[in-house]
Amino acid sequence: MASFAAAWRIQRRVISALMIRELVTRFGRENIGFLWMMVEPLLFAGLVGITWRYMRGPEEHGVSIVAFVASGYIPLTLFRHAIIRCTRVFSVNGSLLYHRQIKVLDFIFVRFLIEVVGSMMAFVFIGALLFALNEFPIPADLGAVLEGWVIYCMFTFSLCLVLAPLSEMSEVLEKLMPVTLYIMIPFSGTFTMVSWLTPAVQNFMLYSPFVSPMELIRYGLFGDRVHAIWDLTVPIGTTIVFTLIGLTLCRRVRRMLVVE
Amino acid sequence: MIRCDQLSKRYPMGSGHKQVFNNLDLRICPGEHVGLLGRNGAGKTTLIKLIGGVEMPTSGRIRRDMSVSWPLGFGGGFQGSLTGYDNARFIARIYGREYEDIRDFVEDFTELGPQLKMPVKTYSSGMKARLAFALSLTIEFDCYLIDEVIMVGDADFHRKCHYELFEKRGDRALILASHSPDLIREFCDRAMVLHEGQGRMYSDVNEALEIYSAL
Description:
The complex is a heterodimer. Chain A is an all-alpha fold. Chain A is built from 10 helices and 2 strands. In chain A, a hairpin with a 2-residue loop joins strand 1 and strand 2. By secondary structure, chain B is α/β, with parallel strands linked by helices. Chain B has 2 domains: 1-69 and 141-215, Rossmann fold; 78-140. In chain B, the strands form 2 sheets. Chain B has a 5-stranded mixed beta sheet, with helices on both faces. In chain B, helix 5 links the parallel strand 5 and strand 6 (173-177). The model of chain B has no long low-confidence stretch (mean pLDDT 90). The chains are: A mainly alpha, B alpha/beta. The A-B interface holds A 9-10, 13-14, 16-17, 20-21, 24-25, 95-102, 254-260 and B 11, 49, 52-56, 58, 68, 70-71, 75-79, 81-82, 86, 89-90, 93-96.
């Protein structure tokens, strides 16, 4: 057990050192510093929410449109940013591999963690702000929000584990990434609830790993004012499969990695 | 002790690959000073990277029963976009040392003064070498891996390195990749000559230097 405790200490040391380094290199120490990490999701969710509010009116399907858009956009920005940040992360951070206690998985984890923390801060911030403006509900079931959020995050992380090593193996992947991230939006559950769709499309949508956790988050926020449908087998199943594939790929790519 | 068994390393090159070395064996005991000789591209830096765990061998295995420094050369081991002080903080954090101790030593050893507040990418190679050396000396290792390219500094830097590395830490093991016969002759107990994918160890340093100069 002593060796496990020692390994745990090193792991914590490495993660916190890498977090600080990443925050300093990305956001600097000027003005609001690391708080920048929540600014982008905040702006996205806020501005898109406001745009929709003026294009489509205050409510849609019985819930505030700003709250609906914000609650969808924050997970989506988390996903998009996590994916973008994990491409080529091994080569970008290559010089850190000079220190043997740092492993390639730490790179992926640290960047992902920064996105998660930033999005969560943005979520709480925008929720509180909109609540003050009477545009956001008190969560009907906070447990469901958190459960949906955790599953959404875990799925995102498992996909990062696959894409980070793949992006080192093939440059095509990096080129295809922006268009894929755009095309996936209708299948991400960001702007629609499953129950608004026709039965045939509903079944199809539930095969998208984003949709069920998103429904769960919506249910947790709006409660019975929305009709949420979810099936967690798909997101949890894909997360497990992607994690296994991803860990194998990371190991293989690490062996071939050329460090300057 | 460090034991390298049957190390092979291949890099992809065009449609084929380049075999840097094949089935190489190497043992380094505590306190031993080993020189690595070879022409440009013979694999000295690659071998040092493998021993340091920066890159992985294509086949074979490396066992480290003593603490091994990161390879000391240009670039590796620090972040160009961070300042000298930030790099010192980072090293202190990942190795679990007190930042104040590391900072004091780095200031003293590098004599870079206010330049330490600037990003490392603005440093000259001599300045980088000073910082890299200082950082690695703040962490006590049983074995230091040194690529000769880092010996670019001025006379003052050489004197300091000499003192810190060979006098103060003379009991540590050392692997030194070098083209300089003088360095190898002065500091190494044994030397390995890398040539055409093979590594041969000579317990007589002068013999190794003769073979090397005849390549």
